[in-house]
Amino acid sequence: MRTFSATVLVALLFVSVALAAIKLPALTGRVVDEAGALSSTQRSALETELATHEQKTGQQVVVAIVKSLQGVEIEEYGVDLIRGWGIGQKGKNTGAILLVAPNEKRVRIEVGYGLEGSLTDAASRVIIERTILPQIKRGDLPAGVLAGAHEMLRVLTGELSAEELAPVQGAVAVPDPPAWTGYVIIVLFLLFVFWRVRTRGVVGTLLDVIWVVASSSRGGSSGGSWGGGGGGFSGGGGSGGGGGASGSW
């Protein structure tokens, strides 16, 4: 029982360290191009399009191109981002994020609770597979981002019909990882920590945690803290829970 309690304690410490090590970029506008993928002209045009959409509908759509996912799955990063930035109106959760990670070659459309009825998982997948990925695979990431964001807005305003969003016949959809995979990872992690405590003892394992903390503080991301927002823009306090779709190239 003592070993089990120590295992749980150390596991919680490891989880806390992992969460602390993930630093999301500051919300500096409707377009957060941490990777520097867009030109100033492209970024300005996209900002204007997103701002106009918000003024007309009250829906906040943000584009985030990040340097790195910092070792987590893009689905997890997307949820952290929409919650941490508070995208969408508070209480209505009318926000969405187009998240692109060039380093990991991953893309995701993260949808707030309030928009899941219009920007559905299926619609998000079609936008990624039919609009965004073909452009990126041709070597034009900016074009994929701009076109993808534009299609998201068209869906949200009802410009795209159900027929236009129907998956291409014969296309093979790549499903998101099933929800139970996260539990499997947690169980495997706990088994690893249990083995670590048995072989190195509680003190030795805690020293490992201290080393990880020291390493992350030296080499962690220099990105800004969550929330906030320069340029007169900030999230409205919205949230999301994993709605949307992901893709890779």
Automatic annotation (TrEMBL):
Start and end residues of each stretch annotated as Disordered: 217-249
Keyword Transmembrane helix: yes
Keywords of this entry: Membrane, Signal, Transmembrane, Transmembrane helix
InterPro entries membership: TPM_dom (IPR007621)
Transmembrane feature ranges: 180-197
TPM domain residues: 31-152
Pfam families according to UniProt: TPM_phosphatase
Residues of the signal peptide: 1-20
Feature: compositional bias, Gly residues: 220-249
Name of the molecule in the record: TPM domain-containing protein
Organism: Roseiterribacter gracilis
